[in-house]
Design a protein that fits this description.
The chain starts with 26 loop residues before the first helix and ends with a strand. The chain is globular, with a radius of gyration of 20 Å. Strands 1, 2, 4 and 5 form a 4-stranded antiparallel beta sheet that branches. Helices cover 28% and strands 22% of the residues. By secondary structure, the protein is of the alpha+beta class. The protein is built from 5 helices and 15 strands.
């Protein structure tokens, strides 16, 4: 097979774990993949395609992840520290039997990323960082439940936010819908990124190149990397079962970033201008997509 896995006989049990014979399950599906691979298309290996059983478990993780963000949305306001946000996330997640995925991930010291104003991503919560009127902040939550991963983030406007800041937040949010409209089964992952890039550019903004979406579900960060500065028709074919995040980071100024923070994590816009990000998790289906976490 194109992905290096052994070929199955027609009467063998299907690789997907359904318990069905291969000929009655994924044989025709795999034949389509083989033809696409022979024509030069980039395809996800089949072990990254989520089964219905796996999707059901990932959805349970996502219920906690969405619940965390809803909990934060009800409480975040002027005067709150980002450390308080971190405590809310940790307490809610663990009380629901789950684990915050960022905590101790490659040494990250907190349970959530809180990225304020010019911080593009990976902001570390702190008792010294007090949210003030006019701030915009991204709260990025990721959850592990029974070994299954979910991931999404939202922007919050604190107090009296300028029209310029609000417009950036709103356009970034709308860009997610633009990307979803470009998501077509058996299309290409680059179609999503190209649509978002064009939309951001048309609105006078730039898109971060170094960071993007990623596969997820059985691990925190799986292939593919989902770029939002790419060409339509590029990248992996959107095969049903492929699960990933859509999380464009859109800058008010230039696209260049500053990764020199001594903490080794926090990324800022190089020109110090505002940035915004929203993140959702989706799985490709035979007739479109299903939203998993938001």
């Amino acid at each position: 097979m194109y992905d290096g896995e052994p070929e199955l006989g027609r009467n063998d049990e299907c690789w997907c774990g359904s318990g069905k014979k291969y000929k009655k399950c994924h044989l025709e599906f795999d034949e389509r993949l083989e033809k696409l691979a022979a024509s030069g298309e980039q395809l996800p290996p089949r072990h990254l395609l989520k089964t219905p059983e796996q999707i059901a478990q990932i959805k349970k993780s996502a219920e906690v992840n969405v619940g965390v963000l809803d909990f934060v949305a009800e409480r975040i306001k002027e005067g709150v520290t980002t450390e308080e946000v971190d405590r809310w996330v940790y307490d809610y997640t663990t009380e629901h039997g789950a684990i915050p995925a960022p905590l101790d991930y490659e040494g990250f010291p907190k349970s959530v990323c809180t990225s304020v104003n010019e911080v593009v991503c990976h902001g570390i919560p702190s008792t010294d960082e007090v949210l003030r009127s006019g701030d915009i902040v991204n709260v990025d939550c990721s959850t592990i439940l029974d070994g299954y991963y979910s991931d999404s983030s939202r922007m919050f406007c604190i107090g009296d936010v300028s029209e310029e800041a609000k417009r950036l937040v709103d356009v970034t949010h709308e860009s997610i819908q633009v990307g979803l409209r470009a998501l077509k089964p058996w299309g290409h992952i680059g179609d999503i990124g190209a649509a978002i890039y064009s939309f951001a550019k048309d609105n006078g903004y730039s898109v971060v190149r170094e960071f993007g979406g990623h596969g997820i579900g059985l691990d925190f960060h799986e292939d593919p990397f989902v770029s939002f500065a790419c060409r339509p028709g590029s990248g992996w074919v959107l095969v049903p079962g492929l699960m990933f995040t859509i999380e464009p980071m859109i800058n008010q100024g230039k696209h260049k970033i500053d990764m020199s923070d001594p903490n080794g994590w926090t990324v800022r816009t190089k020109d110090g201008k505002l940035t915004a990000q929203w993140e959702i998790q989706v799985v490709v289906t035979e007739d479109g997509y299903e939203l998993i976490s938001w």
